[in-house]
Amino acid sequence: HAPSGFHESFNPHGVNTEQRVNPKIAVTWTASSDAESGLSHYEYVVTSTPAVSEAQFAGASITRENHVIIEGGPGTDYEDVFDNFRDPVHVHVRAADFAGNTSDILTLEQVPYDPRRPYAPIMQGQSGTDELRLYLTGPAYDPESGLKGIQYSVGTWPGATNVIGWPSGNEVNMVHTNAYLDNYLNPATQTVAGHTVTVSGGAFLLAHAMPYITIPAADLPEGQQLYINYRAVNEQGHRSIVRSTGPVAIDNEAPLGHSVSQSFSFNHLISQMIANYEIKDIHDPVSGVIRVEVKMTQGDFDSGWSVLEEYDVAKQGPFTIFRSDSLPLNIDANNLDNITVWARVTNGVHLQTVRPLQFTMQIVGTSF
What we know:
Largest sheet: 5 strands, antiparallel
Number of domains: 3
CATH architecture of the largest domain: Sandwich
Helix content: under 10%
Radius of gyration: 34 Å
Low-confidence stretches: 1-19, 179-210, 360-368
Mean pLDDT: 77
Shape: rod-shaped
């Protein structure tokens, strides 16, 4: 009679603990026995579908152990059956005794285990008045099992989660809708949520129409510097390293007051009057300062705003700026007592403070 039946008993983590390119599965079943002629071997067939026929066992592989490691991908015996870490693989096994009898077929299903964690994205936080934004500036990806999405948490120092914790389990804040690396490497135009998106050169498709995550102010303390932590999650639940961006803040206040002073000097080499600006106590304790501008008015003349300094990363203060510039051509250098100097400071959420200062001035010196 046929050998006794057996059932599946496999390691859900597989055996692929090394970082290899080809996918592998490891399946184990309980050992069979035969009291009469004895157990000879096990026969197994590997397919991409649950179904198998008796005819397929004509070319079955043989093992005398109750477990096998099967490798797929290019250059292997099973490259036509499986070559990724996403689709389930089916191993059909039966036992055979020395008399030539075979047992019923047991079908085992397993998705190849991905030993690598995904590559983390590069993201940039931005302060706001009613929300924070976490912009995607460099893509996350996982060439084996593909990406599920991106998670974030928020804290008062890098890595902290004392304001907003990580999502539960493998839930993600930003869903990756085109999970696999071939879509990242090969440019393609697709429609996502009604928007046409081109995948190329560092961009990848997301469920959001724009490449950022919004964090509403209702979930955050106002006026406090915060850090956003983020990581990628792949389809098998593995997480990338954690990166942080900040400080950012919910800021509804314009920059603190600053003071403006100005003096004039005459440059004999170019025969021009020189305006010397000094802006002190430039400061925004919450979102920092991203731009400082100045302009000069006299009567109906307005010189327009001129940028003194601009910062890619919001500058923390207080600090002072000093500049020397030639007077605008439309300024009457012989009538310096009706000039108004204006300084405008813009903070990290684009709120502004403008301070005018009316002068009655004397020429304080000459330069050569």
